[in-house]
Amino acid sequence: MKQRPLISLGSIVVVALVLVLWTAALQLPTPTQSEPLRVAVGMWAGAEPWILAREAGELDARKINLVEMNWTSAAMRAVGNRVVDAAVLSLDEVIRQIHQGYPLKIVMITDISRGADLLMARPGINSVEELRGGRIGYEPRTSGSWLLSKALKNSNLKLSDVQPVPLNPAEVEEIFGQLSLDGVVVAEPWKERMRSLNLNNVYDTSRPGSSIVRVLAVHPDAIIEYREVLIALMTAHFKWVPELVEGGVEVDPVLRREGISAEVFANIISRLEWVDVEENRKLLGHKDAWLGDFFLNLQKGLVEDAISGGRLEPSEVFDSSLLEELP
C-alpha cells in the first residue's frame, strides 16, 4: 500500500496564507489613540497658559481635552477614579491621593503660590490667634486644609481650637454669612471675587515655609499611552507662561473664565512663582534637593492626620523623563 504524505497540499496552502496575513499585519501602521488625553484644570491662574493655548488652536481637541472644574476636590475625585488621566494638583493633594490608593506621577511643576492662597477673617479679626473658637470654612483634604493647619500651628493653635466647617470655595461669597463663619481658606480667584465681604488677610502662602507647589499629576498608564501628547501639553505650558506674565496676548478667555478684571488678574499672577523647564528638570530630577525635602516634610502633618502607610519617597513619585524630552 502506498504511504500518504504527512502534510497535505491543503495544509501547506493554509500555513502559507497565515504567514502572508501575519506579515501584512506587521506592516500596518500603529493605531492612533481613540480617546483624547483628559486633563482636569481647576480655577487657578497656573492652569491658564493651557486655556490660552487651547483658544489659540495649539492644543488639538482630538488629542487633549481640558476638563474645567471649579473646585479642587472634584479634580481629585476625577483623577482618582480615572475619569480624567491627569490633573493640576498641589503637592500635598498628590500625597493624599497616593496614600488613598490612587497611583500618580508628578511630571512637571506648574507654579508655586507665594501669596495666592489665603486664610481670610471677617472684619474685626486681624490675626490667626483671634480665630480661636471661631468657625473656619475650608475645603477638606486639599491644599486649603494644609494651609489651615500651617496657619494654626504657626500661631500655637490646633485644629481642635477652632470649629472647622467643610465647604466648596466657589460658594463662599453666597454662604459666608449664612454659615456664620469667622474665617475661610480660599485661593485666587475666589478671594478677589469675595471683595464685597471685606475680609482681612490673616495668613497666606507668602509666609516662610508656607508655599504651595502645584504640579501636573498623571496616572502612570497615561504616561505610556499618551507620552507624545503629554509632551505637547507641557510644551504649550512653557510657551504660554511668558505671554501670560508679560501681557503680550489677549487674555479675555481667561478673564471670562475667572470672572475678574485684567488688573486683578495681573495682581494674582504676580503672587505666583513660575517654574521654567530647566528648574523643573533640576527639581524633579533630584539635582536640587529643595522639592524632595519639601515633599518629605509635607507628609509629617496634614490637617486631618489621615495619612497612613509607609513614607513616600520622592523618587517613587517624581518623573522627569518627559521634561528631558521637551524641545
Automatic annotation (TrEMBL):
Family of this protein: Belongs to the bacterial solute-binding protein SsuA/TauA family.
Pfam families: NMT1_2
Major place of residence: periplasm
Compartments reported by the entry: Periplasm
Protein name in UniProt: NitT/TauT family transport system substrate-binding protein
Matches recorded under Gene3D superfamilies: Periplasmic binding protein-like II
Keywords from the UniProt entry: Signal
GO cellular component, one term: periplasmic space
